[in-house]
Specification:
three-stranded antiparallel β-sheet, single chain, disordered N terminus
């Protein structure tokens, strides 16, 4: 006697079709992404680069890491026993301005004593080439170390401020201050190997003061929980929305709104080239991905001999 398999109801058949359809769709999407995987082809990139008239380079901590600037994100990203995300806040500065200033004195010393690396220099040199050719080249950086400008870049938009400037907590004037130490009380302080409790307490009156009103100043840095300067953000958006090529260099693209800049360019159908240590691209929609140290991959891609 032959046993018939159980018959499926119309609803069950419909569900099976939906599941099969979803799986086929998923496989097509996977195949399409593999087909669209960003290229690591320097010759093809240079063809695109040479045709571009308005180029934007978005840079992050990975660029400056090759100059010895510590990366305070991810595993081991501590200063003494403190996470940078706990110190770089208005609340931390209000609670203990001396500790926060110690941290930033350390960061200023490191930045002031560091030198631009080949990635910084390549960007500055290529900007000069673009200028001579009547093309536009701009840098939007999440870094606060000032190394792009020291390398010679002129069109630099510093999203998060810079260590060379301070802002008064009272009159809000912004001043350039390259003194190192920025005040006598911070001389010899900021050593990450020291323990907070082993160091003499610094009084607020000893901390850096405004040259105009003598009130306490703080680093001119956009801290966690604060908004970017509206004018800076608007300028960045304009650059992103009008460029015809975007370079993403040494950034993990996790901090908003900068994290959406490159995907926005890709959504407009414009090429995006990523330069990072990671083997895999941040976004499959990017046209190019060059894995390795930026100081090696970027000069090669831009055709700059250093």
């Amino acid at each position: 006697m032959r046993i018939r398999p159980p018959q499926k109801s119309p609803d069950q058949l419909r569900n099976v079709k939906i599941l099969l359809g979803n799986e086929i769709s998923r496989q097509i999407q996977v195949s399409f992404k593999m087909f669209k995987r960003p290229l690591s082809d320097y010759n093809e990139f240079q063809k695109v680069l040479n045709q571009a008239q308005n180029i934007v380079a978005l840079t992050g901590a990975g660029v400056s890491a090759e100059s010895g600037i510590p990366v305070f994100r991810g595993p081991g990203g501590l200063w003494r026993t403190h996470r940078a995300t706990d110190l770089a806040t208005p609340q931390a500065f209000k609670a203990n301005p001396a500790l926060v200033w110690e941290f930033y004195h350390y960061r200023r010393e490191v930045a002031f004593n560091s030198q631009p690396n080949k990635a910084h220099i390549a960007l500055a040199k290529y900007e000069k080439i673009c200028q001579e050719q009547g093309r536009k080249f701009s840098v939007i950086t999440q870094n606060v170390d000032g190394l792009h400008k020291r390398a010679g870049s002129k069109n630099v938009l510093e999203l998060h401020g810079c260590l060379q400037q301070v802002i008064c907590t009272k009159c809000k004037i912004i001043e350039m201050n390259m003194n190192n130490p920025i005040c006598e009380a911070l001389r010899g302080r900021g050593d990450p190997s020291k323990k907070d409790q082993d160091l003499p307490i610094i009084q607020v009156k000893e901390l850096p003061k405004c040259s105009k009103c003598q009130a306490l100043v703080r680093p001119y840095i956009v801290w966690f929980g604060e908004n970017l300067d509206p004018d800076v953000l608007e300028n960045a958006r304009e650059l992103v929305e009008t460029c015809d090529l975007c370079l993403v260099i040494g950034t993990s693209s996790v901090v908003y709104p900068a994290a959406m800049f490159a995907p926005t360019v890709a959504e407009r159908g414009k090429p995006v080239a990523e330069f990072n240590l990671s083997e895999d691209p941040f976004d499959e929609e990017f046209s190019f991905h060059f894995s390795g140290p930026c100081g090696t991959t970027l000069p090669k891609a831009l055709g700059i001999d250093l």
